[in-house]
Write a structure and sequence with these properties.
Length: 238
């Protein structure tokens, strides 16, 4: 019912092939060759390599699911440069705005690192701000931890207590964002691909538990009505 394309650097797909092909063209091929496929989901994407063709596909092809996880890492340009990332904060904000304009129901997730070496309070707040500026909902927050013999391990380190506090602030912000999204979703109808124990995921990757006495088969796409929520999932009935 659903295929997920995944990889360490998914957006660079095809550059090493003899006949060059982009991720957006691969998506087109899959959707054209598999008309019976209900849902196609993309995993973590690098903002620097997402092309306009892929953005347009999100606007025109409903089977390409409205959920994107961004390999963002930080919201401060100096930190991004020191991480050797290929994008700036402005690129992320612009991309999210463009995608929202063609697919309003899209939900963004992102990886964020707290306390990368040399991160000042102002730099951290730029990362905190980008959560709202990009309307990020599903956050994966990691406290920075140095690996031996890497360039980052030789940079001035942020004290561990400050790293832990910044990670906590980012996670609390993420919890607020998901709570607000859950609240806004109550009363809506969603299509859920069922997994184990009556849980499943909507097109935009919100976790849903289907309540009631009916037996829920795994691997079915079921239209449900959202009745409420808990801290970690939506509640629904058929």
């Amino acid at each position: 019912k659903e295929i997920v394309l995944t990889g360490v650097d998914l957006t660079s797909y095809g550059t090493d092939l003899e006949k060059k092909i982009s991720l957006s063209k691969l998506v087109k091929i899959i959707l054209n060759k598999l008309p019976q496929l209900n849902r196609l989901r993309l995993s973590s994407l690098d903002i620097a390599e997402i092309d306009d063709e892929l953005i347009n596909l999100y606007g025109s092809e409903k089977r390409l699911l409205p959920h994107i996880h961004l390999s963002l890492q930080a919201g401060d340009n100096m930190i991004l440069k020191r991480m050797k990332r290929r994008h700036q904060r402005e690129h992320a904000i612009d991309f999210c705005s463009k995608l929202k304009s063609v697919r309003s129901e899209v939900i963004f997730g992102a990886d964020l690192i707290a306390g990368f070496p040399t991160e000042t309070e102002e730099m951290f707040h730029n990362t905190l701000k980008i959560i709202d500026e990009c309307d990020l909902t599903l956050l994966h927050v990691f406290p920075f931890s140095p690996m031996q013999k890497t360039p980052a391990s030789k940079m001035p380190q942020v004290p561990r207590n400050i790293i832990k506090e910044r990670a906590k602030i980012l996670r609390e912000k993420g919890q607020l964002k998901i709570k607000n999204k859950f609240k806004d979703t109550v009363g809506q109808k969603l299509n859920v691909l069922t997994e184990k124990d009556s849980f499943g995921y909507s097109e935009n990757y919100l976790k849903v538990k289907i309540t009631g006495n009916q037996k829920i088969e795994e691997g079915q796409i079921i239209p449900v009505y959202i009745t409420g929520y808990s801290p970690s999932y939506l509640k629904a009935t058929i």
